[in-house]
Amino acid sequence: MSVQQPFFRIILAFTVICSFVSSGAGTRGQTSPEKVEVETINRIKDEAMQRSKVMDTLGYLTDVIGPRLTGSPGLKKAQSYTLELMHKWGLSNAHAEAWEFGRGWSLDGFAASMTAPTFSSLIAYPKAWSPATNGAVRGEVVLMDVRTAADLEKYRGKLKGKIVLVAPARAVPVEFTPQTARLTDEELLKLANATPAPRESTSFQMSAEQRARIDLNYQKWRLLYAEDPAVTLEPGAGDGGVVYVTRVTIPTPFDTPPEQRVVPWSVSKPKLIPQVVVAAEQYNRMIRIIERGLPVEVEMNIRATFHDDDTKSHNIIAEIPGTDLKDEVVMLGGCLDSWHAATAATDNAAGAAVALEAMRIITTLGLKPRRTIRIGLWSAEEQGAYGSRAYVAAHFG
C-alpha cells in the first residue's frame, strides 16, 4: 500500500458523504433513499487516485510553513495559503472570520547545551509564550528537590538568576514491543459486532493524596515565580529524544474556575519566566551527575517575540452551495493551528488537507450537491478549542 492510499480512502468517504448524504428524498420526514450515482462515485475515485493534491497541500503546510501556533506568523501564513487554495478552486464565500484571542508569540531562535562536566548538545525546546533570555545565560544547574512543603524553604532566596531543574528524574521504561499493531480481519469483525458497554459515570473524585500533590506543585511554581530564575528546565514526556512541549506554566490554584485562570496569551501581560523542556534521557543524566556531587553547567539562549499588534485570531470558512436542500449544511474541517515545536503533520495538517481535498474534488468535477457543504479550519484548538467555540457562539448562539 502506498503512503497516499489511506488519505484517498478518507477523502473518498468525505466526498461521497458530503455529496449524497440525505435525510430523505427531498422532503423532510420521508425515509426513502436517494439514488446512488455510481458514475459520479467513480469519477470521484478517479480524481482522488489519479490527480490528488492532498500531499501537495499537506507538504506545504508542514514542510514549508511548519509550526502554526495560534497568534504566530506561522498560522497566519497557513491561513493565507488555505484561503488562496479555496479561491483558486472556486469555493464560495471563502473568508477569514475574526474572533478575540490575545497576545501572539513566536520562537525566533534557541540554543541549549550542557557545558560541564562535558559538552553535550541538548534536545530541548522552550514552552510557548516563554519570554526570551535576553542573550545567552550560563551557569551551574540547581536541582529543586521538593517532596514536601517543608522542602520549599531550602530554596527560598537561593534561585534568583539560576538555571533550575524543577522536577525529579522521570522514569523512562525500556520498550521491547511495538507501540502499535495492525488489527486482523477477525479482530475488526469482533469489534464491529461487539455490544456497546453501558456508559460509565464521568464524575471524578480526587483523593486527598492527589490534591496534596497538586497543591505542592502549585506552591513550588509560586516560589519559582517569586525567585525569578534565569531558566527553568523540566523533563519532556516521551522517550527516545522526543520532547513534547505545550505552553508555559503559570501557578494557579487547582480550584480556580476556568474563566478566572490566567493564560499566557492574556492581553494583561502576566508575569512569565523562561521555561524549557528537555528530553527525559538528558534531563535524567544531569540529575545523576548532580547526585554524584559534581557540578553541572548549562548554557541557554531563547529568542522569542510577543505579538501585541493584533489580538484577533481567525477561522477560515468556505462552502459549496447546495441546490434544492441548500439550507441544510454538511460541515467538515479540522484545526489548522498547532503547537510550535514540530511541523504538526498528524495534528492536524493531515485532517485539514483531507478536508480541503474533498472540497477540491467536488468543485473540480463540477458536482452539484443538494446540501450546502461548508469547511471550517479552526484556530486555537490546542489552547482549548477556542476557535470552533467562537464559531458556534457567533452562528448558533
Overview of this structure, please?
This protein is an alpha/beta fold and 397 residues long. The chain is built from nine helices and twelve strands. The strands form two sheets. It has an eight-stranded mixed sheet with strand order 3-2-9-5-6-7-8-4, with helices on one face. The longest helix has 20 residues.
Key features?
32% helix; 9 helices; four-stranded mixed β-sheet; alpha/beta; 12 strands; 397 residues; eight-stranded mixed β-sheet
Which helices and strands occur, and which strands form pairs?
Elements: H1 5-20, H2 38-50, H3 54-65, H4 73-89, E1 92-100, E2 104-116, E3 120-121, E4 124-126, E5 137-143, E6 163-165, H5 185-192, H6 208-227, E7 231-235, E8 275-278, H7 280-291, E9 297-307, E10 312-320, E11 325-335, H8 345-364, E12 371-378, H9 386-396
Parallel strand pairs: 5-6, 6-7, 7-8, 11-12
Antiparallel strand pairs: 1-10, 2-3, 2-9, 4-8, 5-9, 10-12
Helix pairs in contact: 1-2, 1-8, 3-8, 4-8
Query: Which structural class is indicated by helix and strand composition?
Result: alpha/beta
Low-confidence stretches: 21-29
Q: What's the total number of strands? A: 12
**How are helices and strands ordered from N to C?**
HHHHEEEEEEHHEEHEEEHEH
Major pleated sheet: 8 strands, mixed
